[in-house]
């Protein structure tokens, strides 16, 4: 069986010509943002890259095919159909059954790599959940990032997670973490998680230098670029702390587990903050997409 991978014509020619390409995930569209804002956001995410001269490649699984680069009709499907959230372990099942689904950071990274894409923008990477020493809930995003040579731009990880444990796991998994213009690890809605990073880069060209050095060493892992939201755009910390505590308690009361946990917390926090977290979430994704675009431009220019 050959890999059923369908690359859109725009992405295909960009990859052949060495033009800049940025992969975008689809779980944020289907499970991370409420309808109908999600479709509008998905289109805006792509437009941001196009305006920079970078080709967007939104990634998903549709009708048993891995897709890199979606048509507008396909974006509409991802935003409006009740499709499952697919991580890497779900991909062979979706393909064998001719199914469709939205891809997490882990699955998007894996498909982007198969397609030959090196740079990927998300909102927030998954990580180690609170209470993981009992539940073992750690996102496959971390292990996949240790195996796939992709550069992921993320606003750190969400404060719904155990951030120090996530940083420890990234160290064990040998994933380089670069603070983008900062030495502090961001916590998604908040600019500063309070955790210090070992390394900071000033700009996109410096990230491309690290990517080239990584390739020269033949390392396996990808690179995490931690890109904080400017402090004046972050969620009000008091609003954040209250909503987070309530959402965690509700998830606990409902006994949620597995892949349901992250989408539940994200959408519950949107409700609890009266939509404020959603506005911030969108700014985060856009901010990361712009930085990923700059990195892709730098990488293509080498
Ligand atoms: N970041 C967001 N919104 C999201 C997610 C991340 O801003 O919806 C998704 C990503 O697809 C990420 C997934 O890969 O949550 C992690 O899920 P889990 O914790 O079940 O691995
Ligand atoms: Mn999980």
Description:
This protein has 302 residues and is α/β, with parallel strands linked by helices. It folds into 2 domains: 1-117, Indigoidine synthase domain (Indigoidine synthase fold), CATH 3.40.1790.10; 125-302, 3-Layer(aba) Sandwich (Indigoidine synthase fold), CATH 3.40.1790. Helices cover 48% and strands 17% of the residues. The chain has 13 helices and 13 strands. The protein has helices spanning 9-17, 27-32, 37-52, 72-80, 91-97, 105-115, 132-135, 140-145, 163-172, 204-217, 237-253, 261-272, 276-300, and strands at 5-7, 21-24, 55-62, 65-68, 85-86, 101-103, 119-121, 151-154, 177-180, 184-187, 190-196, 200-201, 223-226. Strands 1, 2, 3, 4, 5, 6, 7, 8, 9, 12 and 13 form an 11-stranded mixed β-sheet that branches. A two-stranded antiparallel sheet has the order 10-11. Strand 10 (184-187) and strand 11 (190-196) form a beta hairpin. Helix 3 (37-52) runs antiparallel to helix 4, helix 3 (37-52) runs parallel beside helix 13 (276-300) and helix 10 (204-217) crosses helix 13. The mean pLDDT is 97.
Q: What is this entry, summarized?
A:
This protein has 302 residues and is of the alpha/beta class. Helix content is 48%, strand content 17%.
